[in-house]
Structure formats: structure tokens, C-alpha cells
Amino acid sequence: MSDRSLRGMRLGSQSMETESNVQPAPRQRVEYRTADGDRVFVTFAAEAEIPQTWTAKSGKEAFLVNGDSGSSAEDEKPVRTHWDMLMERRSIEELEKTLEDRLQYYRSHFAIS
């Protein structure tokens, strides 16, 4: 019985078609970042709707980089610097007085002999 085995291709394992003259669908590569700074790249179809968040392989939530966050610039607060916050608590006169006091303290305690 073994001398009459069938020869041929396995079903479904190989295709008789070639990939010549085949154009892949247009794609876009999107970058996400986790809170730790890990970068995650995901490829979507060009016409696909891009989600704002993506779960990385590590299980952490990653956020879209350079994407529309969904909120307008009007809703966001302006960035406050350390100087801005200091100026909310002190006036220029108070700052000058504090500076002069500290300089006087350092000059009297750390004078080079």
C-alpha cells in the first residue's frame, strides 16, 4: 500500500499565484509613546481612523504622538514658567530686598580671609 502513495502539493500550504504586479494597499505608520517614553509603532491602512491610545506589548497604555488630541488650543492653559509663578507671589521690590539680604549674609559668613 505504501508504494502507491499520492504525490502532489499539500492543500493550503502553497499558492500557485505569484506576487508580481501586485500593489499593496496604502498604509501609514503611526507612533505612540508610553509614560515611560517607550516608543510603539503601529501600521494602519491609509484611510483608517487612528485611535488616540494604544496598548503596548508591555501592557502599558501608549498615547498618540503628533496627533490631534481632540481638544482645541483654546481649552488648554498657557504654560507657566517658574518665573511666572514667582511673580504671582512676590513683587520686584521684594525680590531685590531678598537678594540683597542673602548677598549680605554670604559676604559676612563666607568672607575669604
TrEMBL record:
Chain segments annotated as transmembrane: none
Pfam families reported in the protein's UniProt record: RbpA
Ranges where the record places region Disordered: 1-28
InterPro entries: RbpA_sf, RNApol-bd_RbpA
Gene3D superfamilies: RNA polymerase-binding protein A (2.20.28.270)
GO MF entries: bacterial-type RNA polymerase core enzyme binding
Keywords: Transcription, Transcription regulation
Polar residues composition bias: residue spans: 12-23
Subunit structure: Forms a complex with the RNAP catalytic core and with free principal sigma factors.
Role according to the record: Binds to RNA polymerase (RNAP), stimulating transcription from principal, but not alternative sigma factor promoters.
HAMAP family the UniProt entry points to: RbpA
Similarity comment: family membership: Belongs to the RNA polymerase-binding protein RbpA family.
Protein name per the record: RNA polymerase-binding protein RbpA
Originating species: Rothia aeria F0474
